[in-house]
Amino acid sequence: MESKPSYSSFTSEFKVRPDDIDMFNHVHNSTYFDYVLAARYEQMETCYKMPMEDFLKMGLGWVVRSAFVDYKRPLGLGDTFTVQTGIETINSKGCRVKFEIRISKTGKVACDGWFDYVMINIANGKSVKVSDEMILNYSI
Predict the structure, then answer these.
(1) Among 102, 2, 12, 18, which Cα is nearest to 48's?
(2) Residue 5 has what DSSP assignment?
């Protein structure tokens, strides 16, 4: 049986801001997506050494094709939390990034899930193949 490759995970830390809070006095569900995207943006530059700007200069961009989030407990105003993300799979068609958001004070998971990304040509919006070089850069 062929084993599945294993990839690194990286962690970024954030704090809940007043504008993240919804009318139920906790972080709005859509804001968790923003947290994951902010962590990935930072990690693309600091951990993979191939930031989003490099893709944009080539006329390319990563877009979300599908996403899954399993909410477990809410984040509240002032909570500090970590976002751990990592490539689960990557190939010429795109990649799946798994994530976990953990409340720093309790160590408990607020939510986890994954995003499926495809690469597009920004000029025409059509999907393009992920190059071998890109796959290699993100296969750490």
Answers:
(1) 12
(2) P
